[in-house]
Write a structure and sequence with these properties.
The protein has 200 residues and is mainly α. The chain is built from six helices and no strands. The structure holds protoporphyrin IX containing FE.
């Protein structure tokens, strides 16, 4: 498949463009996360949460420093930490620094889109986790209503065409966030020792 350009067509909404540009990256990430952890058993789910925490921590940090308040999605790492505590698992070390180099308008929007858009996938994963875990596994992160509300508000900003420079910067940021998550999933950045106490 030909690579999708960072340049959006004038009539294309930013959301459509971002989805097309990162579709392959999303599929890779989905597969990598299922391979690295999945959520078929309690310890798999704990590892999934640990990977999510390790990956999100530096991105939440980047947004806090660089994004305006209305582009800072609700923090997910405290919710993940709560779920991990309920599973008896320590919070992992964060992944290495996330950075985008020279700031450009659109970076924060693209970054926020990836984090908030992942709530759509989380909703589907939450259903599977409820079924597999018999409703016993903690889902503060997967079921976070605040992130879903943020996502609904963000839609107004992305379901419209964006100026080309903003669309290009948003796409670069979104690609970087997916690459960051993929690196964490593929290297299993969350240290195994944090998972030793996970109940089988
Ligand atoms: C772990 C396995 C994952 C699965 C099974 C999954 C599944 C999904 C599904 C089913 C959707 C489409 C929902 C819909 O159109 O109604 C979706 C969208 C999305 N996911 Fe994932 N996802 C996963 C991981 C991730 C991760 C880790 C991220 C972010 C780092 C992410 C970011 C997104 C984004 C940005 C969208 C698109 C939002 C939009 O429609 O504009 N996903 N995911």
């Amino acid at each position: 498949m030909a690579p999708v350009s960072d340049t959006a067509k004038p009539s294309e909404t930013l959301r459509t463009h971002l989805r097309a540009a990162t579709m392959v990256a999303h599929d890779l990430l989905d597969h990598a996360m299922q391979a690295a952890s999945g959520w078929q058993q309690r310890q798999d789910y704990a590892r999934f949460l640990a990977l999510q925490h390790a990956a999100r921590a530096p991105i939440e940090g980047w947004l806090k420093t660089h994004a305006p308040g209305d582009l800072c999605p609700p923090l997910q790492t405290p919710l993940i930490a709560r779920d991990l505590a309920e599973l008896g698992v320590a919070v992992p070390a964060p992944a290495p620094l996330f950075t985008l180099g020279r700031a450009a308008p659109g970076h924060a929007l693209g970054t926020a889109w990836v984090l908030a858009g992942s709530a759509l996938g989380n909703r589907a994963i939450a259903k599977a986790v409820a079924r597999i875990g018999g409703g016993e596994w903690p889902v503060a992160f997967l079921g976070d209503g605040a992130m879903m509300s943020f996502w609904q508000e963000l839609r107004a900003r992305i379901e419209r065409p964006a100026p080309p420079a903003e669309a290009a910067a948003a796409t670069q940021a979104a690609e970087a966030v997916f690459a960051h998550f993929l690196a964490v999933a593929e290297t299993g950045h969350a240290p195994d020792r944090t998972l030793e106490s996970a109940d089988a």
